[in-house]
Amino acid sequence: MQKGVMAASDCYIVHEIYNGENAQDQFEYELEQALEAQYKYIVIEPTRIGDETARWITVGNCLHKTAVLSGAACLLTPLSLPAEYSRYVALPAGALSIACAALYGISWQFDPCCKYQVEYDSQKLSRLPLHTLTSSTPVVLVRRDDIHRKRLHNTIALAALAYCAKKIYELYAV
User: Fold this and answer.
1) Lower Cβ count inside 10 Å, N or C end of the chain?
2) Three-state DSSP class for 144?
3) pLDDT tens-digit profile of 77-98?
4) How far apart are the first and last CA of the chain?
5) Does the pLDDT at position 8 exceed 80?
6) What is the pTM of this model?
7) Across the strands, what pairs with 116?
């Protein structure tokens, strides 16, 4: 094996080969099998399924980032705004963080796609066997450990939940 070249067992390619009328179903089945097998890299040649997968991952990333940033806004707003105004920013931001973290947990947590990110780094892509492809614009997924990412947005969302619960209690208990 050459230095810098990916081992074949690390990469799975969903080839764009149309055999019959159920080709799209076959592509989806192959992708699902590759995700379940936890390949380090998955190359998706069929444009439609590649774009759908990339969009699905982008939505998950957006939910994660929104949960983290709105949770941080919820927790940091009371430090930067006067107390009488901070709840108007902190409570909606906290609710948004909780909602995004919950939606991510419900929709993405058990989906094998959540372990993957779309790879754009040309240096890393050059190590893959892309020369065998018929598509000029494949989607390349790379498996990444997302445990720290999940811990981060869950911790921030739980802290935002605790802050919001405390503030709501203070508003209505007095």
Assistant:
1) C
2) coil
3) 999 999 889 989 999 999 999 9
4) 71
5) no
6) 0.84
7) 143
Q: In the 8-state DSSP scheme, what is residue 109?
A: T
Pairing of strands 139-143, 41-44: antiparallel
State both tokens at 70: 């709105």
Close Cβ partners of 105 (under 8 Å, ≥ 6 residues apart): 154
Alpha-carbon Rg of the chain, whole angstroms?
21
Considering only CA atoms, which of 159, 151, 154, 126 is closest in space to residue 140? 126
- DSSP, residue by residue, 33-100: HHHHHT-SEEEE-SHHHHHHHHHHHHHHHHHHHHHHHHHHHHHHHHHHS-HHHHHHHHHHHHHHHHHH
Do 64 and 149 form a contact (C-beta atoms < 8 A)?
A: yes
Pull the structure tokens for residue 60.
């998950």
